[in-house]
Amino acid sequence: MKLLTLILSLMIYNLSFAAEHEGGIHTPNYCSIKNTQSCAHLKFDTFPTSSEESKFVLHIFSANGKEIQNLKAKLWMDMGDGEGHSSAPVEITSMDELNHFYIQNAWFVMKGAWQVQVSFIDGAIEQNINIPLDILK
C-alpha cells in the first residue's frame, strides 16, 4: 500500500511540475545517497513523450565544485518484480558550462514511470543519482 501511495504521489507531483514549467522544464534536484552535495537535474525544452526522441540538458552539481569524471547515463523503467526495461544508449556531449551535458538519442519507448540513471566520479568517489520521470503520452 505504501508503494502504491508513493507511486501515485510521484505521478501527481510530476503532472503538476510539467504543467507549471512549460517551455523550459527543469526537474527538481536529486542528490546522491553517498554525498547529498552531489546533485543533478534535467532541463527539457519540451516534456518527453513515448513517440519522439527526447533531447535534454543534464546539469550536475559537484560536491567540490570541480569537473566530474566518467559520466554515464541511461534510461530505465522498473517493470516490478525485479524486472526492468532500458532504452538504446544515449549520446552524451559535454557543453561549455561546467558539468552541463547535452543528452540526445533518448527514447522513452513507452508510457510510465522512468528514471534517468546517472553515475559519475566526483572527488574520487563514484556517485549514483536516479532522476524520476513520468512519461504520460
Note down, in words, how this protein is organized.
The chain contains one helix and ten strands. The protein has one helix spanning 2-20, and strands spanning 25-26, 30-31, 39-44, 54-61, 69-80, 83-86, 91-94, 100-106, 112-122, 125-135. The chain has 137 residues and is mainly β. Mean pLDDT is 83; it is low at 1-23. It has a single domain (2-135), classed as Immunoglobulin-like, CATH 2.60.40.1930. The strands form two sheets. Strands 1, 2, 3, 4, 7 and 8 form a six-stranded antiparallel β-sheet that branches. Strands 6-5-9-10 form a four-stranded antiparallel β-sheet. It is globular and about 40 Å long.
Compact overview of the structure:
Helices cover 14% and strands 49% of the residues. It has 137 residues and is mainly beta.
CATH class designation: Mainly Beta
Order of helices and strands: HEEEEEEEEEE
Query: For the record, what is the CATH homologous superfamily label?
Result: Macroglobulin (MG2) domain
Mean pLDDT metric: 83
Quote the distance from N terminus to C terminus.
26 Å
Q: How does the overall form come out from the CA principal axes?
A: globular
For the sheet with most strands, the description reads:
6 strands, antiparallel
Helix content: 10-25%
The assigned structural class equals mainly beta
CATH-scheme architecture: Sandwich
Gyration radius, rounded: 15 Å
Question: Do you know the CATH topology?
Answer: Immunoglobulin-like
> Number of domains in the coordinates?
1
